[in-house]
Amino acid sequence: MKTNIGISDKNRKEVSTLLGKLLADEFVLYTKTRNAHWNVVGPDFHAMHLFFEDQYGKLEGFIDDIAERIRSLANPALGSMKELLAATRLKEEKGELKSSAEFLKLLLQDHEQIIRQIREDAPRCEELGDDGSNDFLVGLLEEHEKMAWMLRSCLG
């Protein structure tokens, strides 16, 4: 059945492509946060283990919301690791033991990169006539800003 939601097929595709890249970034950040949860070492292990668990839980929700937003625009969401790794703008890290400060710095850099990207993508969605995706991205921006603040605060 043809999708008729007041946004052209071309514009829905462009928005979905932007959201697909964000989906890939979020998935990589989620994996890196899981890595921090599993591999953090040091005297603050327990507190950081729980902190990172809270963070990856939020990211898991973002991933689902982004994929469902893409689907609501009648486009397929990226669904394989190959597709996600090809689309991400984040640098992948090896799973290895690190101190909490090392993990916090790496994750903060990624959140800030995602924040900067959302600041570019949200107005583009509005230009393409997709106020829903613009609003969605602004809400996600606020969530990433809060998560970045928490990471930054842990660093002192």
UniProtKB/TrEMBL annotation:
Coiled-coil ranges per UniProt: none
InterPro entries: DPS_DNA-bd (IPR002177), Ferritin-like (IPR012347), Ferritin-like_SF (IPR009078), Ferritin_DPS_dom (IPR008331)
Gene Ontology molecular function terms on file: DNA binding; ferric iron binding
Residue ranges of domain Ferritin/DPS in the record: 18-155
Keywords assigned: DNA-binding
Family per record: Belongs to the Dps family.
Name of the molecule in the record: Starvation-inducible DNA-binding protein
Species the sequence originates in: Prosthecobacter dejongeii
